[in-house]
Amino acid sequence: MAISKxxxxxxxxxxxxxxxxxxxxxxxxxxGLTVAELQELRKAAREAGVKIKVVKNRLVRVAxxxxxxxxxxxxxxxTGQLLYAISDEDEVAPAKVxxxxxxxxxxxxxxxxxxxxxxxxSETEVKTLAExxxxxxxxxxxxxxxxxxxxxxISGLSGGLSGIVSGLEAHAN
Length: 173
Description:
Layout: H1 5-21, E1 24-29, H2 35-47, E2 51-53, H3 57-65, E3 82-87, H4 93-104, E4 109-115, E5 120-121, H5 123-131, H6 135-158, H7 161-172
Antiparallel strand pairs: 1-3, 1-4, 2-3, 4-5
Helix pairs in contact: 1-3, 4-5, 6-7
């Protein structure tokens, strides 16, 4: 079913806005997914702060052509039935959402992506990105590392003088 020129212009404008603010965009082949499965994917994506778009690849190319950072991006991988996962908050969230969904839904297969610098990401790079911790997980790890000496000191104080000496020796080494 053909869509009107006005509708296409609106879609391109929406895509241009989404892609302009995107940290990462990941695209995947979805042929064979049911409508219910796509709704399930959209729900999981929404919970992770990721937007799922199913639009014609040609419209994505037009939108990318209107954004300076994407003008020279290789779009040869944008073929077939693709859906796009886009996040303006977290670099790894789109890859994580699609990779997690693909584990239980074999009809979905990650095809590639691109980052906010206009670099094309291969399927392998996207899958590697999906295995990385999220920004929140990384922040939690750093905070835990920073609090470690405080926690050790408190443990040492509660254990008496021998605990303090043991704690100081552990941090000296």
